[in-house]
Amino acid sequence: PSFASDIEAILALKRERNAVILAHNYQTPEIFHTVADIVGDSLALAREAAKSNADVIVLAGVHFMAETAKLLNPEKTVLIPDMEAGCSLAESITAEDVRELRKRHPGVPVVTYVNTSAAVKAESDICCTSGNAKKVIASLGVDRVIMLPDEFLAQNTAAQMPDIEIITWKGHCEVHERFTPQDIRDVRESYPDVVVLAHPEAPPEVVAEADFAGSTARMAEFVGEKRPSRVALITECSMSDNVAALYPEIEFVRPCNLCPHMKRITLPKIRQALEQRRHEVTIDPAVAEKARLAVERMLAVG
Ligand code: 13P
Ligand code: SF4
After folding, report:
1. Where [4Fe-4S] cluster is bound, by residue (predicted)?
2. Is the pTM of this model over 0.90?
3. Which ligand 2 atom is the nearest neighbour of the CA of 90?
4. Of the four listed, 24, 104, 139, 257, which is most buried by Cβ atoms within 10 Å?
């Protein structure tokens, strides 16, 4: 398809509205490499949202990312091009579940993955992403934490922090839970020289078969620094497409899985979002006040 007219319209609308587009690494290349002002992992998008001077922030990503941007910019207009762009992790837990967990484990701090609703963040002590989970947990100086809602991220983090007991929740990313160790063995059999990078939302037995595990930004950095001749990114499919566009000499081999929520965001919907100032993300002020603290504590860890 031809994207030229949408791209041109979006670039003009951004200037007119003093808007920026923050795009996650799982957005398609025609968004990622054309209209996006800032691209990155969840942590980078949260950091950049906190610094923004724009009047309008369009979040090309999923709803929890737009909520995080709104928490950090309560007076700005934050738009998401499709309100239905959710996340199986965010869906896996409610604020009431967190209150119950606290009752069961009194005094144990709650570390919450950013892939959650503002209401869940509001019940938490501090947030984390897959890019800073270890640092955030270490910053608490305790030997027991509740880490929710991603069971696999919690288990993969616990494997690197043997002195800390991590109590988990049974949330999973519907994209990463589908990978199996056999997927990696198959790719290695076809390409013995392949370097395999996995996202820590994948099950621990999958991460164990990989050469490196890290957030989407860490994977992109790894490829940029090491320049392997062949690489498999065990994550969402657009990630490979976006990094491959930067390094034509590197061969990117599959498997990959698509995130149906990320794929709801398209160029025509971004254009409509800017034209019609929709869909505006709003958060109950009482919830926002508490949720913001948890996100700001995370950002302060650095
Ligand atoms: P990161 O980009 O922070 O690694 O997160 C991956 C993800 O699944 C976001 O939805
Ligand atoms: Fe959620 Fe997984 Fe999709 Fe990320 S890739 S938005 S964690 S379902």
Report:
1. 87, 173, 259
2. yes
3. 1
4. 24
